[in-house]
Structure formats: C-alpha cells, structure tokens
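Run log, item B.
One chain of 252 residues. Sequence copied directly from the ordering sheet:
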Amino acid sequence: MVADLEDLWSPEQIARRLATEFGDDETMRVSHETIYKSIYVQGRGSLRKELAACLRTGRARRRPQGRPQRRGKIPGMVMISERPAEVADRAVPGHWEGDLIIGKNGKSAIGTLVERATRYVLLLYLPDGREAEAVRDAMTETIKTLPDHLWKSITWDQGSEMAQHHRFSVDTGIDIYFCDPHSPWQRGSNENTNGLLRQYFPKGTDLSVHGPDELREVAHSLNNRPRQTLGWKKPAEALAELLTGENVATTG
C-alpha cells in the first residue's frame, strides 16, 4: 500500500485494486476511509508526512485560469462536429485526445496524448519548444511506439501548435479534429490527465528540465494507476487487452 501511495495512487484506487486482485480474501480488504485515517490520524512522524504529500489533496488546487492566448484561425480545420460517431461513444479504440501542458512563462511545454477507450497516456518530448513543426515532429515520432491500428484520429484544441496538422495527416494517415473554442470538455479525458500530470509537473515550473526518460517514467506511472472508469483496470492492462484482441469495457 505504501508503494502504491508513493506511485500517487489514490486511497480509493488502492482499495478497489485489493478487492480485484484478492477476490474473496477478506483479510486483504480495506476501505479507502481507513487508508485516509491511517495517514492523517494514526500515522506519526516523517513517514506520515511523506505519504500525505503523495495524496492528490497535497498538491495545489487547479485554478480556473486560461493559458496564455495563442489561438488563431488554423487553415483547413475539420471540426469535432464532423468526427465519426464511433469516437464519441468510445466503442472503437484508436481515437486520441491531445494538448500541451505549459511551463513557466509559457517558454516550455510537454505534449500529452490520451487514448479515449483505454485512457492510455503518451507524452511528447518538446526540447525545441511548442512551435507547430516541433509538435508535428514529436507526434510523428511518438505514434511509432504503438501499432498502426491504434491510431485513427486525434482531437485537439485550436492552439497554434497544430498549424501543421494537414501535413501530419498526410504523412501518417491520422485524422485531426478540432474542438470548438473554449470547450475543454470536448477533450475530457485529456483534460483530466493533464490535471493528474500537474502532480509531476507543477504549474509555474520549467518543463524543459524533464528529459525523455523521465517523461516515459511518468507516463508509465499514470498508465499503471487503476481507473474507476475502466472498472478499476489500469490503462496499461486495458491496452494490453486491445493488443491481444480482447474487449475493453468502460463505464464512462
């Protein structure tokens, strides 16, 4: 349990996974309320403080403020209203949502991609900044890490970093769809993931200090957290089922 907290699992995720992994063994059951109490009430000393810092409540609350203005009309956008119905209901894997998280003074960024059916996360290393060519190159390289059939579309907002979307689609065969302005809920899985990523990459920090190995470690950590929307499976487990031809059932 301590190791899971250090991996930034929530107490509810830990409790649910214990029930999944140990079935009817009542000795391996514990409620998430008990886990919270053991950290906040029963624990003493530095260990308690270290574990409390791992809880999501230990990080700053996300403030409802926008990123620096960088939107403009991008030629040739295909809007989300034209996206196939199969994307909306998450029935078919291979449809992704993407965005950037921005570092201090808007001078650094990390790209994020989330697969809608499995919530599997990939992170884009952007050492050359967040200009359109750099983002296009990073996406083109990153998609090679998974089989072609898991890449059907990507939904993004109208940030200028996607100005080369047409060339990307021509080179890769992957369709790009754009959200309506000021509509982050149209990329709900990605928005949620970006919130989780701020546990690793706090706002107001320089994101350029995080190299590709660290980004892979963070993605691995997120992909191995059990998720309620996946019936407490881990995204990595859900993706593995896809790769072996099994069905992935989601609850929302």
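Observations after the first pass:
- The two ends are 27 Å apart (CA to CA).
- Residues 94 and 149 are 7 Å apart (CA to CA).
Flagged for discussion on Thursday.
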